[in-house]
TrEMBL record:
A GO term, aspect molecular function: chemokine activity
Protein name (database record): C-X-C motif chemokine
A Gene Ontology BP annotation from the UniProt entry: immune response
Gene3D superfamilies membership: 2.40.50.40
Pfam families the record matches: IL8
InterPro entries found in the cross-reference section: Chemokine_b/g/d, Chemokine_CXC, Chemokine_CXC_CS, Chemokine_IL8-like_dom, CXC_Chemokine_domain, Interleukin_8-like_sf
Length: 123
């Protein structure tokens, strides 16, 4: 009788240990999945062309850049990622600089680019 009771206690304690181990494993698995999801959501950029998660321009250039030195100009509109419109100029030297969109010559440049894009879309 004593042997049967001891065997039953061992069986019950083994079942409890298995259940506890299973619960611990499930908790660990859920925490791992949540952790990986957080890391990936920070690492991956949202889908969409031209989307930035923060401002690109930290330093703005106000001086006039000669037209022959400009290879390309990229305008990033303001949005949830950045409070200001960003104007990035690609120079013929290969360097990229951020232009101050509040300076008069950059405002004229933006208007010129916008008009050119409207004409191109109509054609």
């Amino acid at each position: 009788m004593m042997v049967a009771t001891t065997a039953r206690i061992k069986r019950v304690s083994t079942q409890k240990s298995t259940a506890e181990a299973s619960t611990i494993m499930n908790t660990f698995l859920m925490l791992t999945i949540i952790g990986v999801s957080i890391v990936l959501s920070d690492a991956l950029q949202p889908l969409g062309a031209g989307y930035n998660s923060r401002c690109v321009c930290l330093k703005l250039e106000s001086r006039i850049i000669p037209q022959e030195n400009l290879r390309r100009v990229e305008i990033l509109p303001r949005g949830p990622h950045c409070k200001t419109t960003e104007v990035i100029a690609g120079l013929s030297s290969g360097k990229r600089i951020c232009l101050n969109p509040r300076t008069p010559w950059v405002k004229k440049l933006i208007l010129f680019i916008e008009r050119k894009e409207r004409v191109t879309k109509k054609v």
